[in-house]
Amino acid sequence: MPDVAHRPANRWRPALAGSRGAAGLLVTASVVAALVVPTTAWAQAASPPPLPAPASPPDVPSGRLSLSGSVRVRIEALDNQFRPGLDRAASAVFVRSTLLAQYRAGPAHLAAEIVDARAYRFAGRGILGTNDVNAVELTQSYLGLDLAGDRSRGVAARVDIGRFTMDLGSRRLVGRNMFRNTINSFTGIRAQIGAPGTGTLNAFYTLPHLRLPRDAEGVEDNRVAFDRESFDLSFWGVFANKPRAVGEAALDVYVYGLHERDSPGVPTRDRQLYTPGARLLTLAAPGRTDFEIEAAYQFGTASRTAAGADRPIAVSAWFLHAELGHQFRSAWQPRLSARFDIASGDRPGARYTRFDTLFGVRRLDFGPTGLFGPLGRNNIVSPGVKLDVTPGKRWDGFIAYRAALLESATDSFSSTGVRDPSGGAGRFAGHQVETRARYWITPKLLRADVGGAVLINGDFLQRAANANRRSSPLFGYVDLTATF
Fold first, then answer.
1. Pairing of strands 233-246, 249-260
2. Phi, psi at 20, each rounded to 5°
3. What pLDDT does residue 356 have?
């Protein structure tokens, strides 16, 4: 959801869709294509790898400079906007370009990455924010050093200093954004030590980047303003992973700390949060049943709003993800999974109980974000099922269903901003159906991604005090990603 003020109506750009009907047409076409494409994919061949992973750590021969990058162009459209007070239809063209340079000299290595995230030809009032636009930003720029370890046991250690992105565990609390147009980035120091089959231990202390510009006009003009960091916002953590910790299951254990205070021009909720958690999982494989369970508890202090008169109070919040899946032995490698997510919402009283997902990503559990993204890891109870298929070596896709309820009837529902303080609108928000298909047009070079989602309104989204009371939100997107 955008975090900048609305821009006056006479400053809008020409619309991509131009009308609610055109936006609805793109949405419908995206959903239909994502459903039809996997059913015709069985005849495809070739075996390209997935999109390149983020740079960490660089695997570059000593004395060699490596360059890689990507360009992604995505069209998104949303009909029947669910966010209170916004126009019924929204659409935009998002472009994200990356360029990564890596160099190694013996045990030392350098990495620098520029990310350029922009939005064009958007329609809809107040739909853009710093999650969508961050033009010409030095997202990574760090010096790494491989430290001497016990080579007889395969032990290796590494330290990075500078700007970097991070992926830890499930990425639910710390992750590099893949679907979202802009990327979480940090300045600080991180260290890792590990050995094959034994596990890894990660520790970091960072200053998260404040994405700029933050004003509506600057965002909508794709204005270049370099992100900044300060000790007014710091984030640290320790993360450990052990394979085969319980039988065949791997175990992640972690604790994260977030410390925040007001800075000039940036009022905050003064969060002082501590989040310990654990995750136990087995990997999917043909003919096998797999599972995953992750839970975290959050405590500390925070204000309910960023208003100066709102003082910090005690925090007690939590989330749980549980999943049970089975991958069948067949040509399409179908995996059917049952999922359950629950995250606490706030309640009246002397404690703040709404879970904060920190720097985590939502796409893997809750569907596409961007102009959509009604579901997130706060004030939600959501059982669901998902079917993943890989019809050919160029293709993959899935279809997923979730029911969505409020964990607290008086708090705003998940990421929608819709709230009924009286609790009289009930707790059932609706049903979400999502689908996606991806195809490598040119192996290792060009991939297409088409998908869509519908949130079928429940009683809460029709009866809540600030609900738009429109038909069910419908979302679709089409994107092309070129990599080199």
1. antiparallel
2. -60, -40
3. 98
